[in-house]
Amino acid sequence: SSEPLSREYIRQSTRRVVIKAGTSIIANPDGHVSLTRLGAIIEQISSLTARGVQVILVSSGAVGMGRKLMHRQEMMHLSFMDLRRSGRDENISEKSGMGMGGMTRSTSGIDLSSATDAELKKTFDSACSAAGQLDLMSLYSNLFGQYDVSASQILLTQNDFHNENSLRNLQYTVERLLDLGIIPIINENDAVSATMGGIFSDNDGLASLCARYFSADFLLLLTDVRGVYDKPPTEAGAKKFSFYSNDHPSVEIGNKSSQGRGGMGAKIEAAQDAVAPGASCFGCIVACGANLNIIRSVLDAEYDPKFGVAGTLFAQPGSDIEALAVAEQANEASTSTEEMSNSARLMATAARTEARKLQSLSVEERRKILNAVADAV
Hints:
Blueprint: H1 5-13, E1 16-21, H2 23-26, H3 35-50, E2 54-59, H4 62-77, H5 80-86, H6 117-145, E3 151-156, H7 158-162, H8 164-179, E4 183-188, H9 190-193, H10 204-213, E5 218-223, H11 264-274, E6 283-288, H12 294-299, E7 312-315, H13 320-359, H14 363-376
């Protein structure tokens, strides 16, 4: 089958893309890195760079990797008495920050005894992020190195976008990296932003800001579902939208993934912000990163029918791609109505044919048929 013109427009017009891979894509449910999915993402990004497409990768996953590292370190430092008092070997306690089973330890004069559970969780995640960044970037460096692609790391907070001098330096840095073919790997600086308020929602908001301020043509948000649905995709009858317009009726948002901070609501908001009027970003697609060919299906130079049309498209209001998507949506609705009409016509014809057959039977034959139907009911 042929590809919709709106999707062809993306392939032909994208010269710089922001790709966001969330925690549910980077890691398995048990917290370990998914080398299968991560390897597929890196292979496809490397193919894009070989074609001259500039890629900015917004990546989650540091907190999950750091949590395992901190737990391992805690196990190494526990004394025999600590183990006896804890009574069991379980994950490092968020409430204690660096203890087991609710125990607390001195922390260089920092008193956390009066902190709330929410504050303790934020500081715990901050420490996990700091601990996991090195391992995450080492993994990226090694995997990209297999394709002779260089990568760099940039850690950001919202203040970096609000401060004019910081933003200018940041934009210059990103431009220089991309000009040299180096892929910027961007993540939130959780170590300093956890208690600042207004944190990014599972890096969706961060990816949206990167698309707007780093002059990206397109944003690809990889998540754990196939796109935006009219209701949670786990419910029967859920329908995936191929195109989501700004005047689209509200959708029923399901629960967020067990690993990430954001949900589908955050992704819809981030996508709409990225393609707001005046931005360089003409479009965004929310798609499933578990599909090992997802980047290829959206951004490859040529359309491959075996990959199909993936995800849900968001288009900049008033843009050429929006006009194409709206026309496709109208054509799809018209085709669906026509198919329903044809189906109804066929059923009516079949009913009329069978009724004529029934009329041609004798009274006794019809009585036998009706009695048999009654017995069956």
